[in-house]
Amino acid sequence: VQLVESGGGLVQAGGSLRLSCAASGSTFSINNMGWYRQAPGKERELVALITNGAGSTNYADSVKGRFTISRDNAKNTMYLQMNSLKPEDTAVYYCNALVQNYYWVWGQGTQVTVSS
Fold first, then answer.
1. Residue 61 CB contacts under 8 Å (≥ 6 apart), including other chains
2. Confidence band (pLDDT; 50, 70, 90) for 55?
3. For the chain, which terminus, N or C, has the lower number of CB atoms within 10 Å?
4. Per-residue pLDDT reduced to its tens digit, 67-98
5. Angle subtended at Cα 36 by Cα 30 and Cα 37, rounded to the nearest 5 degrees
6. What is the full DSSP assignment across 45-69?
7. Backbone conformation region of residue 7, classed left if phi is above 0, alpha if psi is from -120 to 50, else beta
């Protein structure tokens, strides 16, 4: 399984971006998927998770009510809709996938910069 993120960029505070994570390879073996982010000098942190099947979601407190995670299994793509962006959302955003309930795969990351 390979993951490729896109959709990052520069946006003003209060603006919106939608990130995409396209999966390829043995996509039938993907279970849960998620978005993480890492700001300069900080550890990577969970942003949102979505399960396979029922599509249950979970969010970090810092993004609840502003971000929405979703996935389109027919397109093998996961999304992160980010609204009301804040400067503290600036980070490199990574998608990841649990494969065969056994190992994790990461994308290369996409930069999101929110200016004040």
1. none
2. confident
3. C
4. 999 999 999 999 999 999 999 999 999 999 99
5. 155
6. EEEEEE-STT--EEE-TTTTTTEEE
7. left
CB-based burial label for 47 (10 Å; 0-12, 13-18, 19+): buried
Q: Which residue in the block uniquely carries the two structure tokens 């810092």?
A: 62
Residue at 99: amino acid letter: V
Q: From the CB of residue 3, how many other CB atoms can be counted at a distance below 10 Å?
A: 22
Give per-residue pLDDT as tens, 7-35. 999 999 999 999 999 999 988 889 999 99
